[in-house]
Amino acid sequence: MNKAKAYSAASATAPMASTTIPRRDATENDVQIEILFCGICHSDLHSVRNEWSEFMPTVYPIVPGHEIVGRVTKVGSAVTKFKPGDLAAVGCMVDSDGTCPECRAGFENFCPNMVLTFNSSDKHLGGVTYGGYSESIVVDQRFVLRVPSNLNLAGTAPLLCAGITTYSPMRRWGVANGKKVGVVGLGGLGHMAVKLAHAFGAHVVVFTTSPNKKEDALRLGADEVVVSRNADEMQKHVESFDFILDAVSADHDINAYINLLRRDGNLTIVGAPPKPLDVSAFGLIMRRRSLSGSNIGGIAETQEMLDFCGKHNITADVEVIPIQKVNEAYERLLKSDVKYRFSIDMASLKSE
Question: HEC string of the chain?
Answer without folding.
Answer: CEEEEEEEECCCCCCCEEEEEEECCCCCCEEEEEEEEEEECHHHHHHHCCCCCCCCCCCCCECCCCCEEEEEEEECCCCCCCCCCCEEEECCEEECCCCCHHHHCCCHHHCCCCEECCCCECCCCCCECCCCCECEEEEEHHHCEECCCCCCHHHHHHHHCHHHHHHHHHHHCCCCCCCEEEEECCCHHHHHHHHHHHHCCCEEEEEECCHHHHHHHHHHCCCEEEECCCHHHHHCCCCCEEEEEECCCCCCCCHHHHCCEEEEEEEEECCCCCCCCCCCHHHHHCCCCEEEECCCCCHHHHHHHHHHHHHHCCCCCEEEEEHHHHHHHHHHHHCCCCCCEEEEEHHHHHHC
